[in-house]
Amino acid sequence: MNLDETDIKLLHFLQADSKQTTKALSNKLNLSVTAVYERIKKLEHNGIISNYVALIEKKKVDKAFVAFCHVKLVQHSQEYVVKFEREVRKLKEVLECYHISGDYDYLLKVLVKDMEAFREFMVKKLTTIDHIGSTHSMFMINEVKHTTAITI
Question: Which H or E run contains 90?
Fold first, then answer.
């Protein structure tokens, strides 16, 4: 799907605040409410917009300890990869998991209450997954930039 300038502006506005009404968006874009509604539906139908979420302040829900875990599997067989990915998807503490190149196979972003909760996560959950050869963890000192918006 080719995005025109209006689609790009609409996506920018929605990424900033997806709770805006179509009326408010129509005023910003100088379009009718119907035209805005149809554009949004077209963007959803084509998979450009995949979901709407509420972003939660980590500190307010006592989950401000962020760790990044590198994981290396003992072997790169399809069976081990599929099993690891299936199991890691079940871990509620893991916000993001990427299969990466380099010295490690995966990078996980983990969110928990504190260091004690992180240790429990590692000992009782992550390292119980079969075929993990090694892990390496790093901890967030300060969040310098965090955005969910994609520049188009």
Answer: none
First to last CA, the chain: 13
Tell me the CATH class for 5-45: mainly alpha
- pLDDT tens by residue, 93-140: 999 999 999 999 999 999 999 999 999 999 999 999 999 999 999 999
Please state which CATH number belongs to domain 58-139: 3.30.70.920
Distance CA 144, CA 23 (A): 34
Q: Cβ distance 75 to 131 under 8 Å?
A: yes
Structure tokens at 139: 């901890």
pTM (2 d.p.): 0.88
Torsion on CA atoms 29, 30, 34, 37, rounded to nearest 10: 0
Distance CA 152, CA 150 (A): 6
Residue 69 pairs with which residues in a beta bridge?
108, 137
